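Hey, can you fold this one?
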Amino acid sequence: MENREVARILRETAQLLEIDGAMIARYRSYERAAELLGGLPQSIEELAEDRAKLMELPGIGEGMADHIQEILKTGDYSLRAKLLKKYPETILQLLDLQSLGPKKVALLWKTFKAGTVEQLEKIAREGKLRDLAGFGEKSEENILKAIAVHKKSAGRFHVDVAEEKAEELAAHIRAFGKPIEAVTPTGSLRRGKETVGDLDLLVTLSSGKNTPKAIESISRHILEFPEIDQTLAHGENKVSFLLKNGLQVDVRILEKESFGAALLYFTGSKEHNVTLRGRANDMGYTLNEYALATLKGERPVARATEEEIYAKLGLDYIPPELRENTGEIDAAAKHELPDLVELSDMRGDLQMHTTASDGRNSIEEMALAAKELGYEYIALTDHSKAVTVANGLDEKRTLEQIKKIHAANAKHLGIRVLASSEVDVLKSGKLDLDDEVLAQLDIVLVSIHSYMTMARAEMTERILAAIENPYTQIVGHPTGRLVLRREAYAYDMERILDAAREHGVVMECNASPERLDLKDTHLRMAKERGVQISISTDAHTTRGLLAMRYGVQMARRGWIEKKDVINAHSLEKLLAALRPKPGAATHEKHRAASASARRSSKPRGTN
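Sure. Predicted structure:
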């Protein structure tokens, strides 16, 4: 059983307990255990084989060890099952809606017996929420917006979930042995999209005589994958099924000779393929999943590799992330495709958290894990005080953290640790830490974590105020979106990017699969303006550092090159490229201006 699955059961138990009105200490213990397992690099199954080792994990006592072992043994947890007899399992879907926590869900259940998204939508549309304590007309409106997001994202999965299942399936399929040569993911997963609807895999067979009987044996082996919930199709060279988590998988078995054509066709996108087929027809060819062939299809001219197919069509090879029909075919014809950033280009990570705020690992643990990944530097960006839920640091604790980071660097860890902070942008646009503290940080990264439903014009002014602050160097997760859960907040992206260019502020591409923010279209807008990008993981555990590849994929989708990424360069170049912070005179001038703004009765950007 995977760590993720055990963590999900513990998290759902915590949520159900809170809905049920349990004491805070009781459900928090399950929350903490879920967070721990979600970021644990070791397999919980292996750890649990030795109970003493299991109980060495922080926060895992006798009782929680029993609960984890019960889940691993039975696939469920008795307390969760008991609570789900009292509440419908669908009530957990309500917790995925923005602005709804367990206490509000409990009130909705008590008042209306609302246990499904559909029931809640009906109640909201009837205007029954606005008079309920703790809600109101604005809450009602926001809930309806959140429900619309939920409906749009139904049946889709985060890229890391799809990738994990693809890797497990590929390992299972390869275990069959000969004649299987390769198992390759295609579709939106290969294109690096933030979500995946259906998972497509190509199984390539080695050259030779592959009889229908042999292919049928491979198909039967594939369908023995233990996480299959339902078989949907079992054809001559294709099997389709649903996994237990609801993800649909289509596996196609093909001969090696047609691999390139099939890989191109099933990678997509549909729009890219349609334009490519049109180009092929104009050149006297036909293109399908079997080959690029002469127009009547009697003679293949290219099929083994994607590269040779693109070449025959007079095009440079187009990386999968660009295949969205947004100008990549014209660029390939003119030899003007970007030299996309690679994971191997990354020299450091500029957003992560430690135990000082809401992270799970210490300064040194994060530093050494990053060093193992080959990084030259990292920035530790624990939250500022406004984010109380994340144990944010006030000025005094931030200065103490800076001293601890300097002490860690004095130990010569083999990697430079930069003292930074994820400084909250308050509703007025003011930063959450005093200028005197901001001046002592190596990097000032600012983010929004509150008042995310402000009107477009007000939010634009709020972010502009933060960018204009002379201490701001990087804007973290700039649109605040949570993939499959929360839409980006509304603001004028063009004005924000123009301001970032004017003031030399970097915009982040947050690599967390739950954020991937900025997204591809916004990254391309930033590139067109010459705005520098940082690709950072926002890691809260050492394992979270591995998410960098998702940020790189998203950057590639945005046509981003190495030269556009500030942390794809050496520490010396990074520090030279960052917006310089104010000198003593400018610092004093800004401090006075900030004091004046605080005395103002109506700070910029407020209602």
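The longest strand covers residues 416-424. Let me know if you want another pass with a different chain boundary.
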